[in-house]
Amino acid sequence: MSENIPTDKEKASKLANMLEGLDFPADKPKIMSYLNQKQSAESDNDIIQKLQNNLTDNVQYANVYEIEKQAGLVAQEK
User: Fold this and answer.
1) Cα(66)–Cα(62) distance, integer angstroms
2) From start to end of 1-78, where are the E strands?
3) I need a labelling partner for 51 at 20 to 30 A (CA). Which of 1, 19, 68, 74 fits?
């Protein structure tokens, strides 16, 4: 059985809060647009930069976990 291990628990949790309300599936442009519209005091520029650098164009992400994994905030332990 594999377990999801946060590589940065605080940022993974913050990203989940930042993406609350986003309709899935979502691609990179939809995710980035959502975050730009929702920018608040809770927004974390480091997380936004990680998403910008690590999300793949033309990929539909099914949930927050897939986004966190792609951004390097969660690792899967086997």
Assistant:
1) 7
2) 3-6, 74-77
3) 1
Bridge partners, residue 34, by sequence: none
The residues near 28 (Cβ < 8 Å, ≥ 6 apart) are: 51, 55, 56, 57, 58, 59
- Of 34, 72, 37, residue with least CA distance to 51: 72
Q: What is the pLDDT of residues 36-47, one digit of tens each?
A: 988 765 567 889
3 state SS for 45-66:
HHHHHHHHHHCCCCCCECCHHH
How many angstroms separate the CA atoms of 12 and 10, rounded?
A: 6
Pick from 41, 50, 52: nearest CA to 11: 50
